[in-house]
Amino acid sequence: MIGQPPPERADAARNRQKIIEVASRMIAEHGADQLSLDEVAKEAGVGVGTVYRRFGDRAGLVWALIDEREHRFQQAFLSGPPPIGPGAPPAERIRAFLSAVVDRVMDQEDLFLLVELGSPKARFGGPYKVHHTHLAGLLAQARPGADARFLADALLASVNAYLIRYQRDERGMSVEAIKSALDDLALSVTGGPPTSRRRG
């Protein structure tokens, strides 16, 4: 699981919560793309250095904002009921997981768009690393001998926030159509016939 910080001093915990609350309010009022760490620090009444030390960069602050929902998502695929959780065949779990990632991105789309603008370390660390490890493990079971780590990267590249937004806004695809096409992709990777779900 991600997002398990070491114990904090009471004042540090208060500052962290204040920064998160201010950032959440600023995003609600002005949109995620306008989020500035300098402005967050000013509104929160803390030094800019405090924000950078605690969160590293804007992507780090964004991950803190999505952390709670990410925890729930991870619990679902690590220990929840099948098919996303243990108990279903690996290929079925892969399909359920990728569909759930689409919902996860849509739930906080603006924040995921911001994260994807960050450095590779920020973008491919944190939750991505957990998602990749989980997916690669399932792929190793479903496709013994294949390069599971590469396949996990390739599948996760299909569920990035910018691509999903482009597919919806420019190609006119519904979320259901995106999931259906992604299901076909997962089936082609794990070995199975294409789904017959309607696209549109």
UniProtKB/TrEMBL annotation:
Matches recorded under Gene3D superfamilies: Tetracycline Repressor, domain 2
Highest taxon, organism lineage: Bacteria
Keywords from the UniProt entry: DNA-binding
InterPro entries xref list: Homeodomain-like_sf (IPR009057), HTH-type_TetR-like_transc_reg (IPR050109), HTH_TetR (IPR001647), Tet_transcr_reg_TetR-rel_C_sf (IPR036271)
All residue ranges annotated as the HTH tetR-type domain in the record: 13-73
Database matches in Pfam families: TetR_N
DNA-binding region positions on the chain: 36-55
GO molecular function: DNA-binding transcription factor activity; transcription cis-regulatory region binding
Protein name, as recorded: TetR family transcriptional regulator
Record organism: Nonomuraea cavernae
